[in-house]
Amino acid sequence: MSVVSKYNRISMVYGIIELPVELLLYGRWREEALSNLSGKVLEVGVGTGRNLKYYPVGCSVIGIDNSTGMLEKARKKARGMRNITLYLMDAEHLEFPDDSFDYVVTTFVLCSVPDPVKALKEMRRVLKPSGELIALEHMRSSNPFIARIEDLINPIMFFFIWDDMTRNTMGNIEKAGFTIKKAKNLAFQDVFKKIRAKP
């Protein structure tokens, strides 16, 4: 089953599954990362639209996702938000011209994109030279004990929601041609990070 099929299948319950961690951790991370953005913003993997309420009214946001089920949920959240536009689109094939955006945002997305480096190269392409990638992501820990736990959990997460917990996301961002300007550890030592990178 493809990643699109899996996310279409779980879209009805995804919000419920994610709710505890959203209330405890994700919500405040999203607000801190997004509430001061400006200009043109591309959110890759908008999902059910969890981020939408945190964007300032003054910025123009385009959100994309390759799951119709997830986008349906996001469109409900976006009603009345005139600065939000949503499209069905594949992160590995962004349908925008070069140098289009001031910011590209990913939140807990690079763990499930089939080819994250290819998607990140597309994100770099559509960013303006002065633009910035903002990523809230989880990844393989440098702590051997934590990494072992991730290895044990990973097959279950991958089977149900195509979530690869063992990716070297920092390395993938650099492979795609970005320069990491800041990486802040958020939780479980270095599993969850906020990353800011320049094209």
UniProtKB/TrEMBL annotation:
What's a single GO BP term from this record? methylation
Task: Identify a single GO molecular function assigned to this protein.
Answer: S-adenosylmethionine-dependent methyltransferase activity
Q: Which residues cross the membrane?
A: none
Is Methyltransferase given among the entry's keywords?
yes
* Alphabetic keyword roster: Methyltransferase, Transferase
Where in this chain does the record put each Methyltransferase type domain? 42-134
InterPro entries given in the database record = Methyltransf_11, SAM-dependent_MTases_sf, Thiol_S-MT
What Pfam families would the database entry show?
Methyltransf_11 (PF08241)
Q: What is the protein name for this chain?
A: Class I SAM-dependent methyltransferase
**In which organism is this protein found?**
Methanosarcina flavescens
Taxonomic lineage: Archaea, Methanobacteriati, Methanobacteriota, Stenosarchaea group, Methanomicrobia
